[in-house]
Prior knowledge:
Helix content is 56%, strand content 10%. It is mainly alpha-helical. The chain folds into two domains: 11-77, no CATH class; 90-212. The strands form two sheets. A three-stranded antiparallel β-sheet has the order 3-5-4, sandwiched between helices. It has a two-stranded antiparallel ribbon with strand order 1-2. A hairpin with a 2-residue loop joins strand 4 (158-163) and strand 5. It is elongated and about 65 Å long. The protein starts with 16 loop residues before the first strand and ends with a helix. Mean pLDDT is 83; it is low at 199-214.
Amino acid sequence: MCFICGKLCSRSRKQEWSMVESSIDLSSKSIFAKVNRAANERKAEAMLLRLSEVPNGNLVAIEARYHRKKSCIASYLNLKSIEATTKNVSETQTRYDEVLNELMTEVRSNIVEQKQVYLLSTLLSRFVERLAKSNGPNAQQYRSQLLKAKLISKYPELSFIPQTPYSDLVCSAEITVGDALRKAEQLLNVIQQSEEAQIGTSSSSAFAKQAMTA
Ligand SMILES: [Zn+2]
């Protein structure tokens, strides 16, 4: 397996790949140092993790191999390719932030002023819907924990009440937990009732189920 792209280094095609041959050298010229720097610039967490697990940074000892073709290591270390990747990542982040702002503009006063309680999963599906409508970046990988982390850092006036195995409750930080739970119970009743009323019509009951789980 290639330690850069993760694809096979086939025995029958030995001309296509190389073993890492430079020694444990951590100077800026070693493959380890170069890949480590590129991974840092790319904010490639999976790669950084993999590199951190290589004992002493010794790629030779673990018999690391890589493809010689352009699309593998050369492209990984290429400055232009790194720039394109980071630009892409930051554009995606910006779009996420914009859509989250839109969504929060819509629901913030419901939560903060009118003290309504939302399920985190409901906010997440609305967020994903909005992204899809705006032809934004694919948000399928966007998970509720990520949304929660974002909301916590940007909206300190919100509070989150975990209720395993259901989705967290999102409410104003000013209402008591008891209040929030009471409101949540009403909310869950509504969802359950609509689910019972809709048995057989899979789309809304699937939506309700989705709303219930994190
Ligand atoms: Zn490769």
